[in-house]
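Practice problem: predict the structure.
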Amino acid sequence: MRHLSAPHAGTWPLLLVAVLLNAALVWNFHDQHWYVVDEGNYAHVAERLLAGETLHLDVQDVHPGYINFLNAAAFKVFGIDLRSLRYPLMAAAFTQAILAWFFLAGRGALLATLASVASIALGVLQFLNPTAHWYALFVTAVLVAWLGWVPQ
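Answer:
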């Protein structure tokens, strides 16, 4: 794996394009649709955790925990509203897209910009649901970027 470095001075405008396009996509679509079964379940578990109940003792869920605690934290910070579950998801997707830009910038700023925007447009927006797999993908992207930045 090659070592990642800062992009060249001439590539910053394309990074700005990627940031602006990704921000526009995330903001425009973050509340356009929902999947009742999943989001209702996530909201129910998050509300019960906020009420002081214990996961897998007082309230049962098929997920081991981090997604439920993240959703409970989103409710605490943004209010108890299904839209609140989307904000951490959108932050993770946006960060992942920017990491993709930096990871691919060495192969060309235009390719990096296209890949960054595609990671949002063809990724999270296709099934905009705060499920655990999106956060697992985010952690994987962070790990891949970190491994690229750390000297061998």
